[in-house]
Specification:
The complex is a heterodimer. By secondary structure, chain A is α/β, with parallel strands linked by helices. Chain A is built from 22 helices and 13 strands. Classes of the chains: A alpha/beta, B alpha/beta.
Chain lengths: 477, 239
């Protein structure tokens, strides 16, 4: 899988998402549940939550400002511990290096723990070309892999769009599973099957939540413990990291891990946070004998120094996805990218180009809910707005309907306050589509939405108020 | 052995050029952060208060917590293992087990009850992993214990295999009460201190919070996916 998922055009993807009733129910339920859990351990629990966000932001901003220094320090310290470091500017370079390790080790059986960056560089496809068996060991990823590589729909809960009966069917077909669709029984089957895979694997591949420059360490955050077995049992380990996923010391790592677990899954810490440094030590019995760290640019450096730099602050918690009203309705697959939701709508066009992804910045109401929850304070909706400016003004790529939408929503929507003002101006632009107090034939991306539900016209009830009311009443639209 | 570094200069020069400045290689000062909310959490809490917080949090992480003094420890460990269905048991090689009076349990009582006990022994190589994989109970010791999140911290070394806490079906973590700290902040500070003092970091440091779990199927929580299915913390009053 590469960053791009599916071959359908944006509108078709949205169309199939909006008509998938289980998926929409699951997404709505998940958003509500995960947002409640997040609130319980952030704003509800801590009166100084803003200070945590401010601290997260200052750490991430500092690291991006001195990224070359911290990466140099990291690589020195990894090498000092006997690890090998490869800097890959492109996904091709990353894959070639990993291919060379696989060949040198004659690795055939590979276990992987969940990693977005390896999806981004299409690592699994290369490994399969090499004749390797690659097994994803995160339960959600494993389910998708078994189901003929169904794409993920959420960065934290990748199989969110599947119900347990569908999962049972996949297990029955692929694993000769005979039990029920109870999650406990399904998970137990996965445990038994995957335990064998861990024990026989000759290579383990992981992503990296946060590397620590001062000690050459890196951390992995999971609830299942799969990353621990991936890094404890195979003799060779390759860790692939996006180049911005780094902090100066353990002390900053701790803050970002705390922000990640609270915002991603509403836990103070997840069950397993593992801090690894180099390969195993001389007399250790478990842990890899050989360790390779592959640091990937793949378009990230072109974001540095520009108006989108702050998107590199992202710690991949998915909180923005869980509050996004557009994601709620169209689901993860509609974005056509492994990175869905607001973060995906900002990041995907930067990494994958406007030609392919110019619609994504319009898959947003610019309501600013994403910006409000982001634990490292990325101004997501401002960045979406900037994308639209670039698309319209510099690239001249926006279709007519989107240009109109931009006038309606983009006008003053760069902040929640401005949005409120903007939504007062919007009626004029949206007038042609309005009947009574609802927009029933919306332009551009709104069209797919208004095909199945009316969009509130901005002059009577502002969108965010409407969304709040709707959240309180009907939980599952 | 020193590892290799490939492709670095070109890669880092590109970053510096995008940041519109010359490359920075000379050490930079660690910034004085403007915000430090982490030190306020359970500031000035006593060990007893931290234990209360830990105990309360264990309810949320599907973990049983027991407290005992040193005299009672062997009996408590014995009962938990029996409760989990007996052996095989695998433990680290750690002199604290003897100091805490567990020798007679490990070397006499369990063998007499036909409970197989294996102590990690690096000279046996992969045999250790096979033993851990077949074990019903793994016993480890927390070096730092985080009250806020109910987390134990384990440092690996040649006598303390990583897999003792992962491969067995159930897990017992011994927690000296003196290791309780408010949150992950104090653990990170201590890890840095150890590094600055010794120049060394354990190859694997595990922060473990209860048994393994997953919510990947319709967001239903399933306890026990890849790691232990059940976990018990035994807090030892060593103060």
């Amino acid at each position: 899988m590469s960053m791009k998922i599916g071959t359908e055009q944006f509108k078709e993807r949205v169309d199939s998402g909006i008509h998938d009733d289980f998926m929409r129910g699951a997404v709505a339920g998940a958003q509500d549940g995960m947002s409640l859990k997040r609130k319980a351990v952030t704003t509800d629990e801590m009166s100084n939550w803003e200070d945590w966000r401010n601290h997260g932001e200052e750490i991430r901003q500092h690291v991006l400002e001195y990224l070359d220094y911290y990466l140099e320090q990291l690589s020195e310290n990894v090498a000092k511990r006997g690890g090998h470091v490869f800097f890959a500017q492109t996904k091709e370079e990353a894959n070639e290096y990993i291919r060379s390790v696989v060949q040198k080790k004659n690795a055939k059986k590979i276990v992987k723990s969940k990693s977005m960056v390896t999806e981004e560089i299409s690592l699994n496809a290369m490994l399969q070309e090499e004749g390797c068996e690659v097994v994803e060991t995160d339960l959600g990823e494993y389910i998708l892999q078994l189901d003929d590589h169904d794409p993920p729909s959420h960065i934290v809960v990748p199989a969110l769009h599947k119900n347990k009966e569908q999962i049972r069917e996949v297990f029955e077909k692929k694993l000769a599973y005979t039990k029920t669709s109870k999650p406990e029984e399904l998970a137990y089957q996965a445990r038994v099957t995957l335990r064998e895979k861990f024990l026989e694997a000759d290579l383990g591949i992981t992503g990296c939540n946060f590397a620590v420059a001062e000690t050459g360490s890196f951390s992995l955050v999971t609830n299942e413990g799969n990353a621990d077995l991936v890094t404890a049992l195979p003799k060779t380990q390759i860790t692939v990291m996006g180049m911005e996923r780094i902090v100066p010391t353990f002390e900053e790592m701790e803050i970002l891990v705390s922000l990640l677990t609270r915002n991603a899954v509403g836990q103070k810490l997840t069950s397993y946070i593992t801090v690894l440094t180099g390969p195993r030590e001389e007399l250790d019995v478990d842990g890899p004998e050989e360790f390779h760290l592959v640091i990937v640019d793949n378009g990230r450096s072109t974001i540095l120094g520009g108006e989108f730099q702050s998107v590199l602050q992202c710690i991949r918690c998915g909180a923005c996805i869980n509050v996004c009203p557009v994601y709620r309705h169209i689901g993860g697959h509609s974005y056509g990218s492994i990175y869905p939701g607001p973060i995906g709508a900002v990041l995907t066009p930067l990494l994958g180009g406007y030609d392919e992804y110019k619609e994504l910045p319009y898959a947003s109401t610019l309501c600013g809910a994403c910006t409000e929850v982001c634990p490292v304070k990325i101004p997501l909706h401002n960045l979406l707005h900037k994308h639209r400016e670039v698309i319209v003004e510099k690239e001249g790529k926006a279709p007519v309907s989107e240009k109109l939408l931009m006038k309606a929503f983009g006008l003053g929507a760069a902040s929640p306050t401005l949005y409120k003002i903007g939504s007062k101006i919007a009626p004029a632009a949206l007038n042609p589509f309005t009947s009574g107090d609802k927009i029933s034939k919306g332009p551009g991306p709104l069209k797919a939405w208004t095909d199945i539900r009316d969009f509130p016209a901005p002059n009577k009830e502002r969108f965010r108020d409407w969304f709040k009311h709707r959240e309180k009443g009907d939980k599952r639209p | 052995m020193i590892g290799t570094i490939h492709n670095r200069d070109k890669f880092l020069n590109q970053i510096a050029s995008r940041l519109n400045r010359p490359r920075i290689s000379a050490p930079i000062e660690r910034p004085e952060w403007k915000f430090q909310p982490q030190y306020d959490v359970y500031k000035d809490a006593t060990q007893d208060e931290l234990l209360e917080i830990l105990t309360e949090h264990c309810k949320k992480i599907h973990t049983k917590i027991l407290t005992t003094d040193l005299q009672g420890l062997a009996a408590v460990v014995h009962d938990v293992v029996a409760d989990y269905g007996g052996g095989p048991v695998v433990t680290w090689k750690d002199e604290r087990f003897a100091q805490w009076g567990l020798d007679s349990l490990i070397k006499q009582q369990w063998p007499s009850e036909n409970i197989d006990v294996f102590e990690w022994d690096y000279t046996l190589g992969d045999e250790n992993i096979h033993k851990a994989e077949k074990a019903n109970v793994g016993i480890t010791i927390s070096e730092i214990t985080l009250a806020e999140s109910g987390t134990v911290v384990l440092f690996s070394d040649k006598d303390k295999g990583r897999t003792v806490s992962f491969l067995p079906a159930t897990s017992i973590m011994l927690i000296p009460k003196s290791t309780l700290v408010p949150r992950m902040t104090q653990a990170a500070v201590k890890m840095r201190e150890i590094y600055q003092k010794t120049g060394h970091v354990a190859s694997c440091i595990n922060f473990i919070t209860g048994p393994s779990n997953s919510a990947d199927i319709e967001l239903n929580l399933v306890v026990g996916v890849h790691g232990p299915i059940k976990a018990t913390y035994i807090v030892i009053n060593d103060l």
